[in-house]
């Protein structure tokens, strides 16, 4: 089902939203496996929801470029630009999506009367999804959002936005299980990958992160009745000039949340400000809760992490006074300070305990 045969025009100016929806409806109603094909060209689409369930598996093949309207208000009030909702057995392959977010960021920075902003591509209540070879440029807010999904594979994705673009997380995952992210290059203005409450069985491998804020579990502890995060692995990845490397962050307020069974291994840090950090007093703004975090952080392994820190505190464990971090395992860590004065890196610990094996630099607090 080629979108052009349903009336789409790849001239970058004609609104092709309804043509895309007609092609999707035809493919979704097909009893045999079907494909939606976007040929070469530049296709302008407004906010669009591709809704399932569909009758068989669908290949969404993008050879061209999808662009958002120049006026950021057109999609900026809808929370999403491209949404897949309740779709299973879906493959999204290739292509470029460009949300043209720069004017929206300018509005945000100037404190103007701006819309909330749209996430570029979102998956809600989806299962058995593969995204392979997609490139996302200049999202208004999050490039890719995954919520209430299961069994997703994100492969060979390129995500790009300027380092100063606000809240442009690369991939944000929440309330999902069985998500694998491999072979992705993420250069953006916020977290390269952020994992929110209710997420479990996550595997991230071969990620190039930077610029950005690193890979984060959290922020957690936003609400009291909050699902936890467990079984997350980040491996074989490189962080370059990021604000953080691997981070766990929670608000300092009561919560029933938790983060446990986290593994960070085989990582290279290149001039990273906080290569290893647990921050249970997370507060990016001015109105901080100033309480004690109820989020329980336990069983966190850091193994074979090497490279350079752009601050002296290469490892920070700022944990909750009422729920101290436990079971933190450090093995074969070597993080040096990039400062030419050759001062050594240090560890900073608060309410944290664990064990070390092998050579660990900087020395742990326990």
From TrEMBL:
Gene3D superfamilies assigned to the protein according to its UniProt record, in alphabetical order: Single-stranded right-handed beta-helix, Pectin lyase-like
Sequence intervals crossing the membrane: none
InterPro entries reported for this sequence: Glyco_hydro_28 (IPR000743), PbH1 (IPR006626), Pectin_lyas_fold (IPR012334), Pectin_lyase_fold/virulence (IPR011050)
Localization terms from the record: Secreted, Cell wall
Swiss-Prot/TrEMBL keywords: Cell wall, Cell wall biogenesis/degradation, Glycosidase, Hydrolase, Secreted
Pfam family, one: Glyco_hydro_28
GO MF: polygalacturonase activity
Source domain of life: Eukaryota
BP term (GO), one: cell wall organization
Active site residues of this protein: 213
Family designation: Belongs to the glycosyl hydrolase 28 family.
Name of the protein in its database record: Polygalacturonase
Naturally occurring in which organism (per UniProt): Erythranthe guttata
